[in-house]
Amino acid sequence: MAAGSISSEKIDLLIYGPVRPILENGFSDHFVVHKAETRGDLERLTPAIREKIRGVAVTYHTVRADKESLSQLPKIEMVASFGVGYDHIDAKYAAEHNIIVTNTPDVLTEEVADVAMGLLISTLREFIKADRYVRSGLWQTQNYPLSVGSLRDRKVGIVGMGRIGQAIARRLDASLVPVVYHSRNPSKDVSYKHYPDLIEMAKAVDTLMVIVPGGASTNKMINAEVFKALGPRGVLVNVARGSVVDEPALVQALKSGTILAAGLDVFAAEPTVPDELKAMQNVVLLPHIGSASVVTRNAMDQLVVDNLKSWFSGKAPLTPVAETPFKGR
Ligand code: A2R
């Protein structure tokens, strides 16, 4: 195939997961687009169609491109995944089978950082409770009580100092809040104090903002020991993945006063949220909306399309993940 142009032979693509207009309309005449919203739909595609599919757009993190799905597509060259986290894609299996995996980093960084910052302030200053207070008419009788939480006296430990972690740190800088961070390796991009040990950092701060990838290496890393180290003024904000937090341990820590409060955009078994969390007044609960604005979700969809188009016109994938075997075209 000549570099820069899509071959005259049509390329079969699969949209795996929800279909949205940019995905539906993004592929030109050079592609034949098949659709499977669920694993069941994928299994119902005829063997003749599965045999032809060369690229897959995975359009939501609830659809898993695991070994079982990928092995049904013998001609597959690329999985273009929607979202920056790709713990729902078996990138290791893909690499072993020479399948390129791409994600959609950068285009959502500032949006997720905005949500993280908003969630922190809402949790500390009780915006959701205060809103209910106004609507209920209680303000007519007395002023809203002073919030125990405040950004003014906080020190934040960011767990994960990648693209989004750094964008959160910039917002905290602007708010004059001291920042330190934990990751496996110190980042060359920042001068904040690095803690190689998460517990040591949790002891040194009163607020944790979590923005690491999901997957085995971070599974339940925010656990009872971390909450104990964080202490009774402790606040947890999680905009990463639900799997990163030991959720029963979090419920226990909030109930017992081991920590003060939590702001959560992600949960262990979405969209199910434990009733115990829903009953608590010291938590703010969001339905995984970190990147969920029209402008940002459109940019993410477009990057999924652009990755597939780039590859099938003989160019390099735009945003391959770290595990991908791509060595340059
Ligand atoms: O550990 P390092 O040096 O690789 O630093 C990365 C850190 N990280 C971890 N920190 C501690 N323990 C781990 N097991 C671990 N694994 C990764 O998370 C790095 O500082 C950060 C990830 O940064 P980026 O790859 O630039 O990701 P980005 O765009 O900031 O998004 C983070 C996550 C996504 O994967 C989604 O799950 C979520 O935000 O929306």
Could you name the ranges where pLDDT drops below 50 across 5 or more consecutive residues?
A: none
Q: Output the CATH homologous superfamily of the largest domain.
A: NAD(P)-binding Rossmann-like Domain
- Shape descriptor reads elongated
Binned strand content: 15-25%
| Class by alpha and beta content | alpha/beta
Please provide the count of β strands: 12
Instruction: Say what the CATH topology of the largest domain is.
Output: Rossmann fold
CATH class of the largest domain: Alpha Beta
Write the element-wise H/E pattern from the N-terminal end onward.
EHEHHEHEHEHHEHEEHEHEHEHEH
- Total discrete domains: 2
Number of helices, counting only DSSP H or I runs of 4 residues or more:
13
* Largest sheet composition: 7 strands, parallel
Just name the CATH architecture of the largest domain. Answer: 3-Layer(aba) Sandwich
